[in-house]
TrEMBL record:
Its main location: membrane. This is Tryptophan-rich sensory protein. It is found in: Membrane. InterPro entries: TspO/MBR-related_sf (IPR038330), TspO_MBR (IPR004307). The chain crosses the membrane at residues 44-65, 72-92, 98-117, 124-149. It comes from Aminobacter aganoensis. It comes from the Bacteria. GO terms for cellular component: membrane.
Length: 150
């Protein structure tokens, strides 16, 4: 039972933190006025996608934490979460797509690093990050395109 309480805590921190940051840094008029590439998805897609991804991120972190809470993989998991939570305030809050591009590039590297390290002991945890890596790669391209166009 205790391990499921810890899983719930991971979900609350990741999903709750991501949701809170999303609400605190809504895109607003500045973002609406930016030139965007043809492949920019509709705004409504981001909430459901990030919610699903945050649950996968939480479960992956919980799985690694159960094996070794002080491992390098766990430190990378924490690092990627910090970078993830930093991106929205930099992009939307500071209105700095160039700086946000550096943040998301570091995030993508941390995601890949986590997958590599976690995969040594828990392939499920590593694979839980695959959709996240794909989405962040796409988001990186979107971020770079917005920066380039503006």
């Amino acid at each position: 039972m205790a391990r499921f309480v810890v899983l719930l805590a991971f979900i609350v921190v990741v999903l709750g933190g991501g949701t809170l940051i999303g609400y605190l840094t809504l895109p607003g008029d500045w973002y609406a006025g930016l030139a965007k590439p043809f492949f920019n998805p509709p705004n409504w897609i981001f909430g459901p996608v990030w919610s699903a991804l945050y649950i996968l991120v939480a479960v992956a972190g919980w799985r690694v934490w159960r094996h070794d809470p002080w491992s390098a993989a766990m430190r990378l998991w924490i690092g990627q979460l910090v970078l993830n939570f930093l991106w929205s305030p930099v992009f939307f809050g500071l209105q700095q797509p160039g700086l946000a591009l550096l943040v998301i590039a570091a995030l993508f590297c941390a995601i890949l690093g986590f997958m590599a390290l976690a995969g040594r002991k828990d392939s499920v945890a590593a694979w839980l990050f695959a959709p996240y890596a794909a989405w962040v790669a796409f988001a990186s391209l979107l971020n770079a395109s917005i920066w380039w166009l503006n």
